[in-house]
Request: fold
Amino acid sequence: MFTDLRGFRHRVAVSTAVGGVLLSSLAAVSVTTAAPALATSVAKTALINADSITTSNGIKNAKSTPISLEEYAAAAAGFKVTVVSGAAWDAMKASDFAKYQVLIVGDPFCDSTASSVTSNAAVWTAVVMGKAGGSTMTGNRVLVGTDPEDHYNPTVAGNPSTAGQEHLVEGGIAYAGGVTGATGVYFDTSCGGGINDIATLNLLSVTHKGFTQNTEPPCGGSVALIGSNAAFAKLHTVDLAGWGCSVHTTYPTYPTDWHALAVATDTPTKPSCGIDPSTKLKACGEAYVLVAGFGLIATAPDMTVTPLKGTGTIGNTTTATVTVAHLKVPQKGVHVFITVSGANTGATGVCVPASCLTNALGKVTFTYTGKKVGADSISASATILGSGESVTASVIWTAMRYYLLNTPMIGGVYQVHYGHRYTFVADIGGTVAPHYFYATRAHLPTWWGRPYQGNKPFRSIGHGKFIMVLSITPYGMLLHPYWNIGAMDSHGVMHRLHLHVLP
Reply:
């Protein structure tokens, strides 16, 4: 590999390159966000479809220009806002949408969803789901089945931040745009229940199916918040109740990667249950404010998942254990549906038992392989004694770590000398042995030295750590100072280290 270099002294700068089920969900939800490995969208930028908002509520910006509640809330959440016409939105390409960290479809004063929103839904939803426009990460999603702009009522005249409606909109936009590098969406269906809403919403799920809607729920305003998270820190049940008509569309069922944040408690069916974070009382009903995304943690009275938060190195597996028990009595034979969203959206895994039915201890395990760097949310949902419940866990995936053993860093770089041998460590972070190590000069089509293949050339020095010995040679160093060192693990995932050799 690296052989001896005579008469020269080099420093090596090191940097790494890394590459449905129709179920309602219970959610006592908290959110933490984690940045993906690569950014696509411009940080803290928001795009609003003008067809979906109104500027007639008396809200103005610093230049005294009338603006919508959504624009005010987005700016309050720290976003630089761009408003485009419906026609411009409809003509945008995936790469255009991918430039923004959050897309906003608002409340046009109690109306149905604008046709310009749904006509090109296949374009912008693919960006949100990390499938188009250069976007590779799934963004956070928020669905609001009511009309906060229409009911806008600040407790202090002229101060939108004192309105409960603003708290809902600001929290929703903050959560939807909470993933650096991805494109999220805040989607308000207003008073609509439009015929194209369900098709659009299903495109915003890893399952592409599961949403049903009730377009005529009771209008009395009996609602409950059944989740809490950092983005919605200002929002409480009292902010949602007493609007005269607080709910316009509910979603009795929804995909397993979505979770209820608030429910209408006076609906004919009560498929989603949770604990009101303010009153600590159980509340059940049909969901009308829902969220989906990663960094999401949901808890339920009859379901648990362990571990709640985990880490892994790409190429390895992670296992979540779901336990179903009512009043501490294990529930056998409950079908648990599990989905993965985030960096590894749609990843398939293996259940034990294979049927994903809980065993005599009320348990199901789910194991899958992380293939991309970033954050995942594992969502497990089930119907338990007639109520929909769900739990989630988060996993942060990182690349293999590399370092030179017993070699100090000086000024942020490793200093190596000619004629010396160095121990190179690949920290896989698990139990998967490397398939091979290699070292090669960049820009050359052939191997320099021979690649280390198989298990014999390296040995384990601890859990998930494997080593090989390198030496430095003069040949080609000055002409080709760029080197790649890497390892392929036994899952076929390549991990690379880039070395810049300085004379």
Observations:
- Residues 164-176 form the longest helix (13 residues).
- Helices lie at 69-76, 86-91, 94-97, 115-119, 121-128, 164-176, 197-203, 237-240.
